[in-house]
Structure formats: structure tokens, C-alpha cells
Amino acid sequence: MKHLSTLLLFGVCALLITGCIKEPGSNRNTPGNDDYFDFKIDQQVALSIDYGFPNKDYAVLFELYDRNPLTENEEGESVKRDIEPIYRGTTDGSGRFSADIQALSSLPTVWLYSDYPGVLSPIELEIKDNRVSFDQNSYIEQLRTRGTRAVTGNQHTYPDEWLTLGDWDLYGTPDYLEAERTMPSAGTLYSINEVFVKLNSMAKLKDRYPEFFAAGLSSDLRIIKPTKVYLVFINSSAAWRNTVGYYTYPTGQEPQSPADIKRVLAFPDASPFVKKIGATTARGALAGGDRVQLKYWDGEKFNDEFPAGVSIGWWLEGMGFSNGNIAIQSKGKFARYSTDALNSDGERRTVALLDPQSKRIVAIGFEDNIDLRYNDATFYLEVGEQGAIDGNIPDLPDDGQGPADDQNYVQTNGFLMFEDLWPYGGDYDMNDVMIKYSSTVYKHIVNNAVYKITTEYTPCHNGGKIPSGFGVQLTGVSPETVHKVTVDGPASSTYMQGQPLEPGQKYPTVLLFDDIGPVLDKKITVTFELNDATESTVTPPFNPFIFTDADKIRGKEVHLVKQMPTDKADPSLFGTGDDESQPGINLYYVRMKNDKQYPFALNMSFMTDFPIPQEGKHIDDSYPKFRNWVESDGKSNKDWYLYPAK
Questions:
Q1: Residue among 406, 391, 552 nearest 467 (CA)
Q2: Helix H or strand E segment including 142
Q3: Which among 329, 306, 312 is positioned nearest to 246, based on CA atoms?
């Protein structure tokens, strides 16, 4: 709380003591721009992603998190946490993306996540030298190099009555994988993703698509012309390490008991390389697009082609894989079959869907337990010959359209904290004006250009006595870029003169109020609709500021450290009092006294909650690690805000 005696003392000093107030523009031999700390708790990070898609029209939406975004529900299934990512973006059609983004400086790693087929997810990535990069093909190659290839089938055990297409390594990666990973068209992938892969839908598949479960339909594949058949891994959300394979029988003679079939192992461990198991992330076996050629067992040998007149059934052994070996669990209790009669509980455990465009792609989803979402193991079949399969399975619906503009947004939360006695230092408790904000930046899918920004501002604390207004400027964006501004809530400033943007400003500027008191704890929402702005020019919190003594003047602005003042700021105040701004080198709102630097404003970005600093105490007294953070130029105690004084 600011006291009248303090203000009077400044007044006496100004009248009686020569030099107490420094003249603007005077030569004070102050340090240069690089000598002042910026007081940012976040950092700019160069993000580079390359999923390496062979398709040229398959864009995917991805997200970055500050922790693993997946957890495990009561049924042991992987589900997404209800947390907001720190960043969200869309790749180009080849799976590439690069941009500068913001993240907390204290964050050592980020988690890259996407629920689109063909991507490994989630992946923990190190932030190193302000860079984060991920090359999926290199990542897969590196992991597979670490694996130890099995030499003979005798090195790994599996039930004697089963057959296998070959050997696998300790992690379950088959040594009979095709040399190249493959994926179908982008449209087919989007549809598969909509039906099977997405983890944000907890609804049962039968409730979403009852037509898949109609009488007479089957997930078994009827071969009506000799053909080769390939099985391609897409994804798995299961916590179990499941084994997936197949069996065949003469069409029309469905087996009635598991004892009637000869099981053939296709994927020893149907798990992605990155697999969430309980509280840990484990190494799996597969990447989306891994393909094996299935072989027909004629009773004596394997054949490359499946003959006409046979049907292929699908089978999953729940929890079948462990430490390189395969075993039946609980006497076959968790074995699941596409032939309904083989399932002990009578449930349909596999859903197969025919791509109506190609007639050669069949998407398959397995259900290993009880949630009935059929995404515990997701594959697609690639049938070699056109017209080689009978249409006894439902069509894959054309429901997947890829990411949309309204999905491609970044939400940033934080707190703005100001000292209101600028250009004097005040008590640096950083609580004279506190404003909570939540900004959402919306971007086009095709180019990630920003078309809309919506920010909710909530004045949450007024520790000062001076009437203080608040505004925000999109510094670096021309007024022509803004084609509409909407303000909702109790916003009112006489300096706006009834205009959507403050008149006389080079950059778009909006003032929300002239006095924080009447709007305390009231939400004010500002929406800028833009003509495709570059994302790096409109990074929250943009250029926020307070203007003090607002009942009398407009020009006494207080900005974040090193931020530009607006055209309405009074230039005669720079370099006076405790302010060490140097307009000639575009250095503003800095102070260094007795080798100690203090800010006139702070942005506590990526915060949804921040305790009000103690009244009348310097911020470095309220947070003992603050001073070391500043003096180390932000290299130490990057998370100082987590350790308030006891």
C-alpha cells in the first residue's frame, strides 16, 4: 500500500534537492540494452517437427505439453488428461512444421502429442539451447538400432500350437517387417482417426456407430480371388501389451471353438514405440505404417497368396507379450476373436470397415477389455488384388475431414503485475495493479497464420492508491491488419473517444478502463479479428500497460521491461526518477540501482494461479530465490516463483 508521506517526500525532494530528478536525455553513463535483465520467466523456443509422411496432403494437428498428457483410467486404458497444452499447431501435408514458440524457462522438456494415425505419441523432447526438434524417421531408426535382433525362433517362447511368421527382438519388433513403412491416402487416414484412434471420445463405438454391429455383418475377411494380404499397424491406446495374429477357415464353415483354429502370430507386441503403462512410459515395438505380409498356412507350409474360398479371422491375446516371450494369460480368458462365436462373453471384439474408395483397404479395430471403443489395437489391411474380398463388412464412413481452423489454437494464461509509481521505484511489491489474463490465438490450418485473438482480462488486485487505467497494444501489427475489434464487459475509457481503437496510435491499441477500482474482479473480453497476422508478431500478452494518474493525464504509461511505449506516452518522463530508459536505443522501463535491478512490471506467463505478493515487501523478499534469478541473468532459480517466503 502506498502512503501519502512517501509521495510528499518525493515532492520535497523534487523542490529542494538538485539532481534528485534526472533530466530526460541526460548523459548518465548507463549500461546498454544487453546489460539489463528482461525479467521474463518464459523463453523463445525454436520448434521443428518432421513426421516424414510420404503423403503430400496429410496435415496433422499436434500439441506440446509440459507433462505427459496421457494417464490411465480405472480400466487400464490410456486417456488424455484434462490439461491445456502450452502450444498447438498443424503440420504441412508432409508432416513438417517449424516456428518460434514460447515456453517457461524452467521447463527442461516438453511432450509432443498427436492422436492422428502415423505419428509416435507422446514423445518427451529435451529443450536444449532454446531448441526442440523431432524427426520421426530418425527417431525410429535410432530405436531399432538399439534393439537386439533374435537369431532363431528358439530364443523367444510362445505356445507350441501356434505358428509364427518369423522372429522378433526383445521389444517385440518383428524381423519380417517390410522395409518401408506405408500409409493409405490422407482421406482414409482421417476417417480411420475419427472412428478408432482419437482418445478424446470415451463413448462406446456401438453408441456412435450402431450400424457397424448390425446382424449379418462380420469382421472376418472373405477371400473370393487369390491375393496377397498385408497387415499394417496404426496405433494402440491399450495399457496391456497385446499380441495380434490371425487364423483362416473355409468360408461358410465358421469355427465354433478356439480349439478349431490354428493361430498365426503377426505382431508379437501390438504396441507403439512410446507406450503409457501405469505411471511410466515404456518402450514398445512399432511405429504407425509398420507392415507385414500375412501368409496362408495350408496345413503344411506358408504360401504368399491366400486362395479363393477361405476367410481370414483376427485374434488378439490380451497381455500376451512380456520380456520377449508370448504366453496365454489366465487360461485364455483375455483372448479376443473376430469370429463372434469364439468369444466367451459373446461380445463383438473386432470391427472391420472397408474403404469404399479403394475397395482394397480394410480398417480394423480391436477391443481388449471392457470400454468397447475398439482402439486397443488399430490396423488396416492392404489387399493386393482388386475385387479379391467379399463385401460382408460395413464401409468406413467418410467422417474424417482433418484438422479445422477452430481446432488450431493456442491458449496462454498468466498474470500481469505493475508498480504504479513509475518513473519512481516505489516499494517493488509488484501488487499495485494485478490482472489475470487468458489469451486464445486462433490460426488457419493451411499456414498457421493468426486470424483471431480473444483475451479475457480480469483485474484481480489493486494494491495501489493511484487511479490506474489499463490497455493493450498489438505492437508490430499495422492497423490495417485488424478488421474488427469487439470488447465485452464493463470496459470504458474516456481516452478511446468512442472508437474501437485508440486514435492517434501507430499500432492497434485498446484501453479497457481508466481506473481499476470499479472493475475489480470483473471479466473483460477483447477480440481482435485479423487479416492473417504472423504468429510471432502477436504472442501473448502482446504489449500490455497501465497508465497512472489516469483521472488527470494519459501519458504516464508503465510497460513490461524493455517493451515499447505507445505513441501516447509522455517522452519527457523517460530517464527521470528511477527510470533508466534510453529512447535513442529503444531501451525502456529498466532500472539498476546499487547493482540491483528491479522491474516496473512483470508477466507471470503460463500461470493459472499466482498468490498476491505481500504488501510493502520487495518481490525478492516475498520470493527469496528471485534475486539470484535476476543476478544470474535468468540462468539459475528459473522456477523462483514456486518458492515464496515462509
A1: 552
A2: helix 136-146
A3: 312
> Which amino acid makes up residue 197?
V
Supply the pTM of this predicted model. 0.87
In tens, the pLDDT along 317-371 reads 999 999 899 999 988 899 999 999 999 887 889 999 999 989 999 999 999 987 8
Block residue for cell numbers 479475457:
456
Question: How far, in Å, CA of 573 to CA of 558, rounded?
Answer: 11
Residue 133 banded pLDDT, cuts 50, 70, 90: very high
Cβ contact 380:234 at 8 Å = yes
Amino acid 172 reads G
With a pLDDT cut of 90, the percent of the chain lying above it is: 75
The yes-or-no verdict on residue 175 having pLDDT over 80 is yes
The whole-angstrom separation of Cα 557 and Cα 36 is: 20
Query: CA-to-CA distance for 120 and 111, rounded, in angstroms?
Result: 11
The better pLDDT of the pair 452, 201 is held by 452
Angle at 183 between CA 179 and CA 185, to 5 degrees: 145
Q: Are strands 42-50 and 163-164 parallel, antiparallel or unpaired?
A: unpaired
Q: Is the peptide bond before 423 cis (omega within 30 degrees of 0)?
A: yes
CB contact at 8 A, 51 and 181: no
Q: Give the span between the Cα atoms of 541 and 539, in whole angstroms.
A: 6
- Mean pLDDT (whole number) for 542-547: 98
Would you say how long the chain is, in residues?
A: 646
Confidence band, pLDDT 50/70/90 cuts, at residue 29 = low
DSSP alpha helix (H) spans, 173-250:
186-192, 205-208
Burial class (CB in 10 A: 0-12, 13-18, 19+), 287: buried
CA-CA distance, 400 to 397, in Å (whole number)? 8
Lowest mean pLDDT of 363-372, 433-442, 551-560, 595-604, name the range: 363-372
Q: Return the number of other C-beta atoms located less than 10 Å from residue 419's C-beta.
A: 28
> Residue 218 and residue 353: Cα distance in Å, rounded?
10
Burial 354-388 (b: 16+ CB within 10 A, else e): bbeeeebbbbbbbbbbebbbbbbbbbbbbbbbeeb
